[in-house]
Amino acid sequence: GALSSGTAIAQGRAGRIGASGLKMGGGNVPRVPYKAPGEQSYQFIDIWNRMYRERILYVGQDLDDEFANQMVATMLYLNNEDATAGIQMYFNCPGGEIRAGLAVYDPMNNMGYE
After folding, report:
1. Taking the C-alpha atoms of 17, 54, 77 and 31 in order, what is their torsion angle to the nearest 10 degrees?
2. CA angle 41, 86, 7 (to 5 degrees)
3. 81: number of CA atoms within 13 Å, CB side?
4. Residue 36 phi/psi, 5° resolution?
5. What is residue 46's three-state secondary structure?
6. Do the beta carbons of residue 24 and residue 11 sit within 8 Å?
7. How far apart are CA 32 and CA 49, in angstroms?
8. Opening angle at CA 24, ends 4 and 40, nearest 5
């Protein structure tokens, strides 16, 4: 898949990134079924971790330097895991700092996705 603008990174200031060790979302986060590779049964995980595991990143807050660094680190990690699989990104935010936006924009354009 291609890297597209438009992800699981965060929801509000209460939370941050998913399975990379950072917390996503806050409050009453929906839980969804997930079956890990090689597992027989499903487990319920929060939706942010599920999206992360599916290589989907979502931005639902202002983009500041700290959050941009977390996004870039997540994109680099996912790219290192599988450089041929794309990352889907979804933005639903009012904006943010220009420097932070450019920090996210550069790796989006320089990762080897089609």
Report:
1. 30
2. 75
3. 14
4. -65, 150
5. strand
6. yes
7. 9
8. 85
**pLDDT per residue as tens digits for the range 16-39:** 444 444 444 456 889 999 998 899
C-alpha to C-alpha distances, 108 to 11, 58, 89, 101, nearest whole angstrom: 20, 14, 9, 11
Report the SS3 class of residue 81: helix
The model carries a pTM of: 0.69
Is residue 52 a contact partner of residue 86, using CB atoms and an 8 Å limit?
Answer: no
Measured distance CA(12)–CA(88) in Å, rounded: 19
Candidates 1, 2, 3, 22; CA nearest to 104 is 3
Phi and psi dihedrals of 47, rounded to 5?
-60, -30
- The string of pLDDT tens digits covering residues 45-94 is 999 999 999 999 999 999 999 999 999 999 999 999 998 898 999 999 88
Asked whether the CA dihedral 31, 33, 39, 41 is positive or negative, the reply is positive
Rg (CA), the chain: 14
